[in-house]
Amino acid sequence: MSVVPRKIGTKTLHVFLEMFGLNKWVERPACTEDSYPLKGALSKSDGAIIVAKNAKEAIGFLGVNSNDVQHSNTVFLLSSVYGRGYGLPVLAVNYVKCMLIWCVRKIVVSTWTNNRDQFKQPTAELPEDFITDCAVWDLFHSSNQTSSLKDVEYKGTTYQVRNQFFPYLLSELREWDTPHDLSGQLRTAQDTFVANWLKGRALSAEAQTLLDAGRKVYLVFYKEWKNLNLRKFKIDYYDCGWYQIRNALLDAKVGLEELNAVKEAHTKLALKLRPKVYDYGFLDHQ
After folding, report:
1. Structural domain that includes position 160
2. Is residue 15 part of a domain?
3. pTM of the shown model
């Protein structure tokens, strides 16, 4: 049986200089500080560890590889350096650009017609509401692999990996129904980088809805603290990451309604943001 070709549309291929690729947008700071090399939220990197150093004053590490849509599944955030090496440290000075890269790389759905499309640096000035929306959307994505880990060892050194992407202020958290086990931590802790960054920022209705839905998940998490498998998810500190919180609740089959509300709010914010990836020039319109 012969196959008859059928035209279904037009695909325009855009060419631009490599220097204008999104992967060239952020200067990569030198990694000079010994760190605990991760392969995911909870596990030390195995096999050949290419990188075990992070930048001084890093607040996380953005794993990001290649520059096209099909490799967006390689984009994720860790609380410490990624042992396989590809990616860049996240610091206060490059936080916004890292959050934007993370968001636009993850929010575009890969298809057979766009999987080779290359991401570019934005061609327009980015409004603050877009920046904030992207940063909030990132926090509740499954590629947020940040975590808080106690007494993890690498090459004879013991590390405390802390999560600077915990989104809520301690002044609020201290009013919640938190377990007595955490009372000492909450008295002496300082607000995380992200909680401070979000403080006072104007939030869109969609971002506010997502943060409010997330707050309800955190409330359930602390309320159910004693009923969760804390050891399985290496939970010792109050500032555990979204990966730890979400999976501990799923494992215990509690907070499912609250988690579903986060998923719905996350999807609504994505629908708002996705067209702007093209409007601001991160990808070319077809």
Report:
1. 20-286
2. no
3. 0.94
